[in-house]
Design a protein that fits this description.
It comes from Popillia japonica (Japanese beetle). By secondary structure, this protein is α/β, with parallel strands linked by helices. It has helices spanning 6-23, 28-37, 42-49, 84-93, 100-118, 123-141, 212-221, 239-243, 263-275, and strands at 145-148, 155-156, 175-179, 201-203, 228-230, 253-256, 280-283.
Length: 284
C-alpha cells in the first residue's frame, strides 16, 4: 500500500486552493474529495477544514491603492501604468517608427497623462481650504471662473495666472456658479467638485474631454442643487450621457447642440422632460 508523506501532501492542497483563484469556481467539492483521499492524516485534514470557501460571490478583489477614490498620486505614479507589461511587449515587437506623426501622437498622449495626474484629488487642499474654496482654486487655476453667493462678479485668473481667492477656510463662502468653458478638464478632475452644497450654475461648454461617463459623475455630484447646465460644443457627449441627467431633480435649463440630433437624441430629450416637467431644453 502506498503511503503519503507530509511533504507530498502539501502541494496537493496548494494545487486545490490555486484552482479556485484561476477558475473563479467553487472548490468545496474538490476539498471534500481531498479530505476523503487523505483520511487518516490528522494534520492535513485539520488544515483542509480550516479553509472556509463557499462560493465566488463572497470574494472581492482588493482595489489597488492608485485606483481608490481620493488617493493622491505620488511623483512616481507618472511612471506607472496598469498596462505596463502589454505596452512593453508591443514596443519590443513593433518596428521602430520615428515619423513626425508618431512622435506627435506620443507627445500628445504624454501631455494628456500628465494633465490627468495633475487633476487628481488632493486631500490636503480640501482640509486646508474646505470643499468650496478648494474647488474654486482648482477651477480658476486651470483657466475657469467661479462665482460665490452674495457676490456680483466672477473670479478669473489674469494673463499671469494671478487671482484673488482666500488661502484659508471661510465658513460663509459658497460656490454659486462654475464656468469650465474650454478647459482641459478630465473625468478624474471632476472629483474635485464633489461635496459642494449650493452650486446652481455649471458650464462645461467646449470641454472636448467630457463624455458620457463624465455626465454620470456630474449628475451624481450636482444632482440635488444644479439649476443650469451648458453642454454645448462637447462632441463626445451623446444621448446616453443625457440620460444620466434624470438624477438632477432641480434642473431648469439645459443647453445642448443640435449636431447629434438623431431619433435617439430626440427620444432622450422627451424622456428628460417627462421625468423633469420643469426642464427647459434649449437646442442651438
Amino acid at each position: 500500500m502506498f503511503t503519503f508523506t507530509r511533504r507530498r501532501i502539501l502541494p496537493v492542497i496548494n494545487a486545490q486552493i490555486c484552482l479556485y483563484s484561476e477558475t473563479g469556481k467553487e472548490i468545496k467539492p474538490s476539498l471534500t474529495a481531498a479530505e476523503e483521499e487523505l483520511k487518516g492524516h490528522s494534520d492535513v485534514s485539520g488544515r483542509l477544514k480550516s479553509v472556509e470557501v463557499s462560493s465566488a460571490d463572497g470574494i472581492k478583489w482588493r482595489t489597488p491603492w492608485h485606483q481608490k477614490e481620493g488617493q493622491r498620486y505620488s511623483v512616481l505614479r507618472t511612471f506607472y501604468s496598469e498596462h505596463n507589461n502589454t505596452k512593453i511587449m508591443k514596443f519590443m515587437q513593433a518596428p521602430i517608427d520615428l515619423s513626425p506623426s508618431t512622435l506627435r501622437k506620443w507627445w500628445t498622449n504624454r501631455k494628456k497623462l500628465h494633465e490627468v495626474i495633475m487633476q487628481q484629488y488632493i486631500p490636503e487642499r480640501n482640509r486646508t481650504l474646505g470643499n468650496e474654496l478648494a474647488a474654486a482654486h482648482f477651477i480658476v487655476h486651470r483657466g475657469g471662473s467661479v462665482k460665490f453667493f452674495d457676490q456680483d462678479f466672477w473670479i478669473k485668473a489674469n494673463k499671469f495666472n494671478q487671482y484673488e481667492l482666500p488661502d484659508r477656510f471661510k465658513a460663509d463662502w459658497y460656490l454659486q456658479g462654475i464656468d469650465c468653458s474650454n478647459m482641459e478638464l478630465h473625468y478624474e478632475g471632476l472629483v474635485n467638485l464633489r461635496d459642494l452644497e449650493k452650486t446652481e450654475w455649471l458650464s462645461i461648454k467646449g470641454c472636448e474631454n467630457m463624455d458620457d461617463w463624465c455626465m454620470d459623475r456630474i449628475s451624481n455630484i450636482f444632482g440635488r442643487t444644479l439649476l443650469y447646465l451648458d453642454l454645448r460644443e462637447c462632441p463626445n457627449i451623446s444621448h446616453r450621457g443625457l440620460g444620466a441627467l434624470t438624477k438632477m431633480s432641480k434642473l431648469k435649463i439645459l443647453y445642448v447642440d443640435d449636431i447629434t440630433y438623431t431619433n435617439e437624441f430626440e427620444m432622450t430629450c422627451l424622456m428628460l422632460q417627462q421625468v423633469l416637467p420643469d426642464l427647459d431644453i434649449r437646442i442651438e
